[in-house]
Design a protein that fits this description.
The complex is a heterodimer of chains A (767) and B (482).
Chain A lengths: L1 H5 L8 H6 L2 H14 L2 H5 L4 E8 L4 E7 L1 H24 L6 H20 L3 H19 L6 H32 L4 H4 L3 H6 L3 H15 L8 H4 L5 H10 L3 H14 L3 H24 L3 H22 L2 H32 L15 H15 L5 H14 L5 H23 L9 H4 L6 H19 L1 H17 L15 H18 L1 H13 L6 H22 L4 H23 L12 H19 L3 H21 L3 H23 L4 H4 L9 H23 L5 H14 L4 H9 L1 H24 L12
Antiparallel strand pairs in A: 1-2
Chain B lengths: L9 H18 L3 H26 L5 E3 L4 E3 L1 H27 L6 H17 L4 H19 L6 H32 L4 H7 L9 H18 L7 H8 L2 H24 L6 H24 L4 H22 L2 H27 L1 E2 L2 E2 L9 H4 L1 H14 L6 H15 L3 H27 L12 H16 L5 H14 L2
Antiparallel strand pairs in B: 1-2, 3-4
Helix pairs in contact in B: 1-2, 1-4, 2-3, 2-4, 3-4, 3-10, 3-13, 3-19, 4-5, 4-10, 5-6, 5-10, 6-8, 6-9, 8-10, 8-11, 9-10, 9-12, 10-12, 10-13, 11-12, 11-17, 12-13, 12-16, 12-17, 13-15, 13-16, 13-18, 13-19, 15-17, 15-18, 16-17
Classes of the chains: A mainly alpha (767), B mainly alpha (482).
Chain lengths: 767, 482
């Protein structure tokens, strides 16, 4: 990625540079050819797998696998990649960021290849997130626009969030089965589906797939990501990256699929996505946006097919996967040509381009016919398989037929809007300056659109090398499905004819429908993006709120919360340790009650007063009263120490505090009246310490040390006051050291006091 | 009596002796020249201490100083990481101290003494050694926080840190006294032996003691709910000091926490697991949500640090060897990411003024593409996005947690990573997509360059060569679970 950042240079360089620009496309094309050599092996139903140890001990291997599914994806990625790279070199010929774009596209292509080729799910996830990150940089390519920046971040956040859920799902799968290899998981499908974690795993994995593949209700980022340059949209947002979610569902279908949960979730979410997206597609006037919504529709249909899961459904999914990538990439690239040559993508401003751009029209027409599903295009075969699949669906066939039919019919209308409308009719203002694109921009979409026709007229080849091996990988076992142009007159054919008729009707009424939809949209009926905006706004608000509440900058508050947390922990220990009980207290003599009363009184005074002096004196009283208790129990020496320390403490603190301003005048936030919060906290923590102490007294103290000193002090040290003997005899050296420390500290303090006069005034800002 | 018992403590002794000698050297030299000489020698000392640690660390544990000191693979590993952290942050502090006119030789000495404390802390085998080493580590930190003593912000940071740190030390000490009172020993080995017998319950008083000790340790870690000092201190302290705080003491405290929970209280996983889970959950959540609203990059790094401690604690919460292994890997990778990030922050200057606002990152990629790339790598890694090192840190702790049956905790951690990713990625967006209001200073000091190259390389290339770190961490973790 070093190169990404440092290659921003003007594109107006020499002929050599112009040749070098084709190099990425060439690389990608060679990769495509290399993958083609696998066709015979994979077509024979075999699988190629390579693995190296990577993180030993964690079950993570550097393992790659090529089967039908992986190969089809790899061919699409490298093949379309080569054409898109070629197109980009021409499309952005004069853009200073051309090389940055080419390199990012190349990096994306590598990551995407990694996703589909990795057998190890952790490795797959690594590549998965890499596609997210490179896509972020690609969507934000036009970073001069604030809109592009915001949309780039949106796409990143939505897919990253889903990605992390996916990671959690993968970890669960790995821990449950003991392997992270996707190819080994299917052998454990019963273990997975019978375990209590099955639902959790499915939800987590599908969250990842649905966000990546823009399923309802996470679909909104995909149309928004159309802020990306057109070649990027063609590559990432139609042919490859958005299919990563579909890919993963297909890859995990043998391990997770075949249950009611899988069927219903995929069919309902996929079906709803497909229908809603086709309605939204009709609504768009920007052709690129319309195509983006039809991509969402395609992803929904693929999800639904995987959910249905029988042989025809999987064959339909495999065929649709390929045909959609071909025609959609071609159409996106065509829209890019229109945008470049006519200066707009708005459907109303385009018309009559056919005369000046007949070569482009040819491409658009080929791709559009495949999209509409007319024979003999590959799109037709794919739609026949789709209808065959839905009419034989194991459950709710009527519902899925309705889903499939309405989505397909609207697709016909959109195909016409993209491939017919701009090229016919009276030339608009935009058409005047239009003209054919350079060859480099035309050839890519032309090949893609042409392939739609070639694969359509060779159904046997297409079926045995692409459709059936892919379906085999998704099913985990061989599938039976007939891939042909002519199936005889049956229900799917009748549905197909009805679809095209309905589609044409919708196309003719398109502007009226668009008006109605715009009205509904203005009333905000289906705005899932609001959920994202709402979450983001509230996230920020919550963050601000909690920071203000906790991080006030005042040490008083910090000590309050620290003590409160400690109190909570203490009470937790008391409750968890189960030592709430009433200890046997002996009756106290009157004098002790008096001292306790004094302590209580002084403590309350400390809590209530607003004067520092009274507070300090109150604390002093508490200390001296405690010294009194020591006296009563005969510990005169301890009492002496306590008295001395207390006196010193009060004197020193008072001297320091007298120099400070009064609390209420110095601190605007100083609360008037009793500080109930602090009083409550003190009571709670005090009660906790009391209970803990009482409980502690119930248990036996380890008396070994006490006994040792009691026995040894007189014979060894000739003293009967144990404390004194310890201080000056048993640990005399320590005492000596302490004295030395005190003396050195005093010297230091003296030196500092003498320096006082030289101190400069503090500067800077205080919080 | 032979002096061979000093041998295991050689790195710490070296740090202390060298500190004492350099104190004299600095006192008899001119200000700036003395500071430079002392800093250079201190850097050399730290490097020597790092290699000495590698040499003296044995296969099996060695005890010294009447079993108050232990040197095992765990201590050796953590010391190596901490010494590297101190070395890296002292190195990137040099240009900062020059530019801010803070060249005083005491700075390097404070780092040396504090680092010696960290070394002793990681080798502490009794609560007494623990407390003394902890104070040796912490006292220089208070001074360092207030090192820019003629600004209110820095002095305030030092004072706040001191007041709250004293409170935490008090809690820790009180807890230690309770444990001692109820078990009759302060030795980690002895505590472990007493309760090795199996199904013994921790005495009531000792449980209360454990709670207080946990609170004290959480404070040193900067974990919720004892984290409050971190944002204020990180912001107020001079940036070079903040870098040191984020790297060395945090990692040392994590090493100590792991040892205290795994060794003396190793038999009571059920008792402390709930505390650790609560602290981890709180830290992850606060780290994620707290950082979003921050406009100051140092405050943001404080919250980031809180969050990362939370993730590391997820590993500890598992209470297994695998969990400790996760913690070690996490903290090691965190060190490189955080030192690298601070190196970026220290590099950002405009007309000689240091830049502290998050907004100041805007447009960095236009002017300093390589620096922006390094920063982006650190941000993506801190957010836990593969294939960078930060992802693997998270992966290992989450794996350990799931393995120990703490699935809810792991899922919560993943959720918080999503929230956390937001603010790291916002910085990437600023750097790559927004325009700089004014040009940045172009020079990158050689010390910063060196540290940036090393930390970026480790963060980006960990995926390719994970062996050295993973292998040593594995040995270190197994030392605590014989």
């Amino acid at each position: 990625m070093t190169a990404v950042a440092s290659t921003e240079r003007p594109a107006a360089s020499g002929a050599a540079e112009r040749v070098w620009r084709l190099f990425p496309a060439l690389l990608s094309a060679s990769a495509f050819l290399w993958f083609l050599t696998f066709l015979p092996v994979i077509g024979a139903g075999e699988v190629v797998r390579v693995a190296w140890p990577w993180v030993p001990g964690m079950g993570i291997e550097l393992s790659f696998l090529i089967d039908g599914l992986a190969l089809v994806f790899a061919l699409l990625i490298t093949g379309i990649g080569a054409l898109v790279l070629l197109y980009t070199a021409s499309y952005f010929a004069t853009h200073p960021g051309l090389w940055r774009l080419l390199i990012l596209l190349g990096l994306f292509e590598l990551s995407m290849l990694g996703v589909v080729l990795a057998d190890n799910l952790i490795l797959m996830f690594v590549f998965w997130e890499l596609t997210t990150v490179t896509s972020f940089l690609l969507v934000g390519f036009d970073h001069e626009k604030a809109d592009a920046r915001a949309k780039a971040l949106q796409a990143l956040l939505v897919t990253l969030a889903g990605g992390l859920a996916l990671l959690a799902g993968i970890l669960l799968l790995g821990i449950l089965t003991g392997t992270f290899e996707a190819s080994a998981l299917s052998a454990h499908s019963e273990l997975i589906q019978d375990s209590g974690f099955y639902v959790v795993i499915v939800v987590l994995v599908l969250l990842g797939c649905f966000t990546k593949s823009a399923q309802f209700p996470f679909h909104f980022w995909l149309p928004n990501a159309m802020a990306a340059p057109t070649p990027v949209s063609a590559y990432l947002h139609s042919a490859t990256m958005v299919k990563a979610g579909v890919y993963l569902m297909a890859r995990l279908n043998p391990s997770l699929g075949g249950t009611d949960l899988w069927f219903w979730t995929l069919v309902l979410f996929g079906g709803v996505t497909a229908v809603l997206a086709s309605v939204w597609a009709l609504r768009q006037t920007d052709l690129k946006l319309a195509l983006a919504y039809t991509t969402v529709m395609a992803l929904g249909a693929l999800t639904m097919m995987i959910g249905i899961g029988h042989d025809y459904a999987l064959a339909a999914a495999s065929a649709f996967l390929v045909v959609h990538a071909l025609y959609k990439a071609a159409l996106f690239l065509t829209i890019g040509i229109l945008d470049k040559k006519a200066g707009t993508r708005e459907v109303d401003q385009l018309g009559g381009l056919g005369r000046k751009m007949w070569a482009t029209w040819l491409v658009a027409a080929l791709a559009g016919l495949s999209m509409a599903g007319l024979p003999p295009f590959f799109g037709f075969i794919s739609k026949e398989l789709l209808y065959e699949a839905v009419v034989t669906a194991p459950a709710v066939p009527i519902l899925v037929v309705v889903f499939a039919f309405s989505a397909s019919a609207m697709m016909v209308a959109v195909a016409a809007a993209v491939a017919v409308k701009p090229f016919v009719g009276a030339p608009t203002k935009a058409a005047e300056k239009a003209g054919e694109p350079p060859f480099g921009m035309w050839i890519g979409p032309a090949i893609l659109a042409g392939l739609g026709l070639v694969l359509g007229v060779l159904p046997a080849f297409t079926g045995s090398f692409f459709v059936l091996p892919t379906a085999l990988s998704i099913a985990g076992q061989p599938v039976e499905a007939k891939v042909a142009l002519w199936h005889g007159i049956n229900l799917p054919l009748i549905l197909s004819i009805l679809t095209i008729a309905t589609g044409v009707v919708i196309y003719l009424k398109l502007s009226a429908i668009r008006g109605a939809l715009a009205g509904a949209e203005a009333r905000g009926i289906w705005d899932a993006e609001r959920g994202y905006d709402w979450s983001l706004a509230n996230l920020k608000r919550f963050a601000a709120w909690q920071t203000d509440a906790i991080q006030t900058g005042r040490v008083t508050d910090y000590i309050f919360w620290t003590t409160a947390s400690l109190g909570a922990l203490l009470w937790w220990a008391i409750v968890a340790g189960g030592f709430i009980g009433v200890p046997a207290l002996q009756a106290l003599p009157l004098i002790e009650w008096a001292i306790l009363g004094l302590i209580a009184f002084a403590s309350i005074a400390v809590a209530v007063t607003h004067s520092r002096l009274i507070a300090i004196v109150g604390l002093g009283v508490v200390g001296i009263a405690i010294a009194g208790i020591f006296v009563l129990y005969g510990a005169i020496d301890v009492a002496m120490t306590q008295l001395l320390v207390e006196t010193l403490f009060v004197v020193i603190v008072v001297v320091a505090l007298l120099k400070l301003p009064r609390l209420r005048t110095a601190f605007a936030h100083w609360q008037k009246g009793p500080r109930w919060g602090h009083a409550t906290l003190s009571a709670v923590v005090g009660a906790g310490v009391t209970v803990a102490l009482l409980a502690v007294l119930e248990t036996d103290l380890d008396r070994r040390i006490t006994t040792f000193f009691e026995q040894e002090s007189a014979p060894s040290a000739f003293g009967r006051n144990v404390v004194n003997v310890i201080l000056v005899d048993f640990r005399a050296l320590d005492t000596f050291g302490e004295l030395a420390v005190v003396v050195i500290a005093a010297l230091g303090a003296y030196a500092l006091l003498r320096l006082k006069a030289e101190r400069p005034e503090p500067k800077g800002d205080a919080r | 009596m032979s002096t061979s018992y000093l041998f295991p403590a050689a790195p710490e002794l070296l740090l202390i002796l060298s500190g004492l000698v350099l104190l004299l050297v600095g006192s008899f030299k001119d200000h700036a020249a003395g500071a430079r000489l002392v800093s250079t020698l201190a850097l050399v000392t730290l490097a020597v201490a790092f290699f000495a640690t590698i040499i003296v660390t044995p296969g099996a544990a060695i005890y010294a100083f009447r079993e108050h000191f232990v040197l095992d693979a765990f201590a050796g590993f953590m010391k190596g990481v901490v010494f590297l952290g101190a070395l890296g942050t002292l190195l990137i502090a040099q240009p900062y101290l020059r530019q801010e006119k803070l060249e005083r030789f005491e700075y390097a000495l404070l780092v040396l003494f504090s680092t010696a404390g960290m070394g002793l802390l990681l080798s502490a085998n009794s609560f007494l050694a623990l407390y003394v080493a902890l104070e040796l580590m912490t006292l220089p930190l208070y001074v360092m926080a207030a090192f820019k003593r003629d600004t209110f912000k820095s002095t305030e940071a030092g004072l706040k840190y001191f007041v709250l740190g004293a409170l935490a030390s008090g809690m820790l000490l009180y807890g230690i006294s309770l444990v001692y009172g109820f078990t009759g020993t302060i030795s980690f080995t002895a505590l472990q032996d007493i309760y090795a017998a199996g199904d013994v319950r921790l005495p009531i008083g000792a449980l209360v003691g454990l709670v207080f000790i946990a609170a004290g340790l959480a404070f040193k870690l900067g974990a919720v709910p004892f984290h409050m000092w971190t944002p204020d201190v990180y912001e107020g302290a001079p940036t070079a000091v903040t870098a040191f705080f984020a790297a060395a003491p945090k990692i040392a405290a994590m090493g100590l926490t792991v040892r205290v929970f795994a060794e003396p209280f190793g038999a009571f996983v059920a008792d402390w697991q709930q505390i650790v889970i609560a602290v981890a959950v709180g830290s992850m959540a606060l780290g994620a949500f707290g950082a979003i609203g921050q406009t100051n990059i140092k405050r943001l790094m404080a919250y980031s640090g809180i969050g990362h401690v939370g993730y590391a604690l997820v590993g500890l919460a598992a209470g297994t060897e695998r969990g400790v292994y996760g913690v070690l890997v996490y903290m090691t990778l965190y060190l490189f990411m955080t030192v690298g990030t601070f190196a970026v922050i220290l590099t950002l200057r405009r007309r000689g003024q240091e830049l502290e606002r998050v907004q100041d990152f805007a447009g960095l990629s236009k002017e300093q593409p390589l620096l922006a790339l390094a920063a982006a790598i650190f941000m993506f890694s801190l957010a836990g996005i593969p294939p960078l090192a930060g992802f693997f840190g998270k992966l290992y702790v989450f794996l350990a947690a799931v393995d120990a049956g703490l699935i809810a905790l792991a899922v919560f951690g993943v959720l918080m990573s999503v929230v956390g990713a937001y603010y790291y990625l916002r910085i990437v967006k600023l750097m790559y997509f927004d325009a700089p209001p004014e040009p940045f200073d172009k020079t990158i000091e050689p010390e910063l360059q060196a540290v940036l190259v090393v930390t970026t390389a480790v963060t980006a290339l960990f995926i390719v060569f994970p062996g050295p770190i993973l292998g040593t961490a594995q040995v270190a973790a197994s030392a605590l679970f014989p």
